[in-house]
Amino acid sequence: MIRDITIGQYYPADSILHRLDPRVKLTGTLLFIVSLFLFHSFFGYIAVTIFLFSIIKLSKVPFGFIVKGLKAIIILLLFTVLFNLFLTPGEPIFKLGFINITKEGLKSAGFMAIRLTYLIIGSSLMTFTTTPNQLTDGLEKIMRPLHHIKVPVHEIAMMMSIALRFIPILLEETDKIMKAQMARGADFETGGIIKRAKSLIPLLVPLFVSAFRRANDLAMAMEARCYRGGEGRTKMKPLKYSGRDYIGYLVLLLYLATVIASRMLENVF
Q: Residue 230's closest CA among 159, 174, 124, 128?
């Protein structure tokens, strides 16, 4: 399960999505996530599905690699679907004792499953096609207007970038600890969900110790190099828009128009 988590990882490839400015991808990801929660019928989700699979095709990231990251949220997805299925009031279609499944609950559970799945895939595509350095620069550029009201823009972007960098590092560390404990007789594979969850508790202490040690080493390295924030710092590769970036914004505008049109169709039908 640990090896299947792909969120925060970068997948190197030569695609137009990899070459896009990170500001375009950040804006597109935000717009895509917002659009997922605007629809309540199949019209909108058809448009979202076409857009998402087109982006996956352009990214040249293997579909199997993208789907592998969904294994980590199966339990969360299952709980969310069950809560919507059994706790949504409406017209009953099946009733057995305290179990009551309604038409509205079935519809809500289906849409929520699609939303969560697409949200993870859409967010992952941004990290698959954007290096941590590009992501930091893009976030800093987008949030630059907040600097005028004394918001520490550079520091916020740096913290988010470091957090994304630490995800694969901590996953690798967790895998090493699991292998070491399995060599000493620990069992992480057998038993039910409760037993397997309890067996993971001994991993937490060495994992937290390792995380704090790495964070301390990073802080000392930054201090040794006289890091003092973003004020007056220059960049080796400053962000500049090119023709493909403006085309990317145009595609996003067309997608936004499709979202609005689909929303209007929902209201009509």
A: 159
Residue 108 token pair: 């809500």
Give the list of residues 6+ apart from residue 10 with CB closer than 8 angstroms, or none. 127, 128, 129, 130, 131, 132
> CB neighbours of 47 closer than 8 A, spacing ≥ 6?
255, 258, 259, 262
Task: Please list the alpha-helical segments (H only) found in 143-192.
Answer: 153-183
Asked whether the beta carbons of 9 and 127 are under 8 A apart, the reply is yes
Q: Strand pairing partners for 100?
A: 95
Identify any residues that bridge with 94 across adjacent strands, giving them in sequence order: 101
Number of CB atoms found within 10 A of residue 206's CB: 15
Q: How confident is the model at residue 29 (pLDDT cuts 50, 70, 90)?
A: very high
Neighbours of 209 (CB within 10 A): 10
Rounded to two decimals, the pTM is 0.76
- Looking at the DSSP bridge assignments, the partners of residue 96 are 99
Q: How far is CA 192 from the centre of its chain?
A: 28
Alpha-carbon torsion angle 245, 250, 256, 262, nearest 10: -130
The single residue listed with the structure tokens 């893009």 is: 138
pLDDT in tens, 6-27: 666 788 888 999 999 999 999 9
Looking at the chain, how many residues does it have? 269
Distance CA(214)–CA(129), nearest Å, equals 26
Query: Cα separation of 74 and 121, whole Å?
Result: 13
- The single-letter code of the amino acid at 119 is L
Quick check: 84 and 106 in contact, CB under 8 A?
Answer: no
